[in-house]
């Protein structure tokens, strides 16, 4: 039983790779970024489908999935395998992609505000120390 959409069978396309790279530049771990991008495009997918579609190895999927679980961005459930064997885990984003992007944006705004506050404090301290140019 396959949950994968045809568009992501061959792996991440150029736009999806660009999205994953932008997420990475914003501080998201690259494997987490690929996982988010893949699940947003493919919808419900098994771990094996994620490996093939996102170009990740099984341990990388497991580690990245921990991050998504911790953030409550993904759900998982078991699907009985055909014949014998362990059931397959199926994963899907529970948080819409635009909401995930909004949360990342909010975090970056807070980081930026803290950085500006630190620079302003630094300027104030420099002024109290005589803060002009150093003499040669």
Q: For the terminal residues, how far apart are their CA atoms?
A: 75 Å
**Overall pLDDT metric:** 87
Counting helices, strands and paired strands, the structural category is mainly alpha
Fraction in helix: 55-70%
Annotation, overall tally of beta strands: 3
Read across the widest sheet, the strand sequence of neighbours is 1-3-2
> What would the principal axes of the Cα set say about the shape?
elongated
**Proper CATH architecture of the largest domain:** Orthogonal Bundle
Q: Count structural domains.
A: 2
| Largest β-sheet summary | 3 strands, antiparallel
How are the elements arranged and paired?
Elements: H1 14-25, H2 30-42, E1 45-46, H3 47-54, H4 58-70, E2 74-79, E3 88-93, H5 97-128
Antiparallel strand pairs: 1-3, 2-3
Helix pairs in contact: 1-2, 2-4
